[in-house]
From TrEMBL:
Its EC number is 1.2.1.12. It comes from Helianthus annuus (Common sunflower). This is Glyceraldehyde-3-phosphate dehydrogenase (Phosphorylating). PANTHER family: GLYCERALDEHYDE 3-PHOSPHATE DEHYDROGENASE (PTHR10836), GLYCERALDEHYDE-3-PHOSPHATE DEHYDROGENASE-RELATED (PTHR10836:SF76). It holds the Pfam family Gp_dh_N. Belongs to the glyceraldehyde-3-phosphate dehydrogenase family. One of its GO terms (molecular function) is NAD binding. Keywords: Oxidoreductase, Signal.
Amino acid sequence: MKVNMYIIFFLLWSISVKIEEHCHVNLAGFGRIGRLVLRIATFRDDIEVVAVNDPFIDSKYMAYMLKYDSTHGPFKGTIWVVNESTLEINGKHIKVTSQMYISGLRLVNNFFYICTCKMSFYLF
């Protein structure tokens, strides 16, 4: 199921709204909005980012961008690059993929929602 990024963004920012079930999210895009959604989701118990997909950014640069974010300040958690396809953020493993089209993501990752965080949308 594809979810509008503003819906997920609202759920992440809202303090009073809690998701009833544990929600697994795949981020499509790791730009300014994608990093912000991941940053907020890592400190919530009801939302878990299981994968990040960006065809142009590798895992080492993702860790660097999140750790030293010039817009939102440095990340206050722990970030480790396990290997080329896995990041460990606050003790949770997040799979890193680089698929150009989001239609292939369901075959790769186990998730319930796709949060598109790119201004140029992927084709299905």
